[in-house]
Design brief:
By secondary structure, this protein is mainly alpha-helical. It has ten helices and seven strands. The strands form three sheets. The chain has a three-stranded mixed beta sheet with strand order 6-5-7. The protein has a two-stranded antiparallel sheet with strand order 1-2.
Length: 267
């Protein structure tokens, strides 16, 4: 806890210093701050929990997830994260990591997928699912994103995600593109990467799941996208919805060739 507060105070001091610096120097200071945060990333604790959960015999069926197919064959984890979301023939759906894990938990272990999806983020089996997603993402750290686009549904989801990215609405007439559709935007200490085209290594979808210092929680991509909708004052779109998965396809394809740093750490 002491370490967390010291890092937060450091961030506050950095925020004041940034105002007096030229733009390039400010960006460099922020990058140095983020590099310091990476030392001792709490996501390692969630990785360990996720690995344990994956191997445990759980649920009504008392089964492990060893036969869960994330797109590269049953139980194959290395490289799976950087190819998601993708189309799965067994569900006849495009799924991201979290929605695919939910399918495996239901089919293999006997959990009620609808009940888990309706659970608030960070609670119950949703917390366990996020931990497993964190561990699985770590197995592809350093690899480059290359989402498949050969299936018609994958192509359709990309186009839908693109439309959702630019869709304006809510009381503030916001869209995803309002914050993430231009270069050089920043809110306080947070750079706002341009996600409408190749965003570069380790940003955007290539950084989630991530540990949020501000909330002391591990967030998966589903929670990140739902929180974006919350900030736009849109209705809650739901865990594993086609809308969030389509946005994931759009962002993932745009990140083609970007190096994954997930699980990362965020302010």
């Amino acid at each position: 806890m002491a370490k967390k507060w010291s890092v937060l105070l450091l961030g506050m001091g950095l925020a004041l210093a940034v105002w007096a610096q030229p733009k390039d120097a400010a960006v460099q200071s922020i990058e140095e701050y983020r590099a310091m945060l990476e030392d001792g990333n709490p996501s390692e604790l969630f990785e360990a929990k996720g690995e344990d959960l994956w191997k445990q015999r759980r649920g009504p069926n008392k089964a492990t997830l060893a036969q869960c197919d994330l797109g590269k064959g049953p139980g194959v984890l290395a490289g799976a994260f950087v190819e998601l979301p993708r189309y799965f023939p067994d569900t006849r759906r495009v799924q991201d990591l979290e929605s695919r894990l939910l399918t495996c938990m239901e089919v293999l272990q006997g959990f009620d997928a609808a009940k888990i999806a309706a659970t608030p983020f960070g609670q119950g089996e949703q917390s366990n699912l996020t931990a497993m997603a964190t561990w699985i993402a770590a197995q592809s750290k350093g690899l480059k994103f290359h989402l498949p686009q050969s299936h018609p549904q994958e192509q359709a989801f990309y186009e839908i995600g693109k439309r959702l990215f630019y869709q304006r609405g809510g009381p503030h007439d916001f869209a995803c593109a309002t914050c993430h559709g231009q270069d050089g935007k920043r809110i306080r200490l947070q750079d706002m990467p341009n996600l409408s085209h190749f965003p570069g290594d380790g940003v955007g979808i290539a950084a989630w799941p991530a540990y949020r210092l501000s909330s002391g929680q591990m967030w998966g991509m589903q929670q990140r996208l739902n929180d974006c909708y919350r900030q736009q004052r849109f209705p809650y779109v739901g865990f594993g919805s086609d809308a969030t998965i389509a946005l994931g396809v759009y962002l993932g394809v745009n990140s083609q060739g970007a190096v994954s740093v997930a699980p990362a750490i965020k302010r």
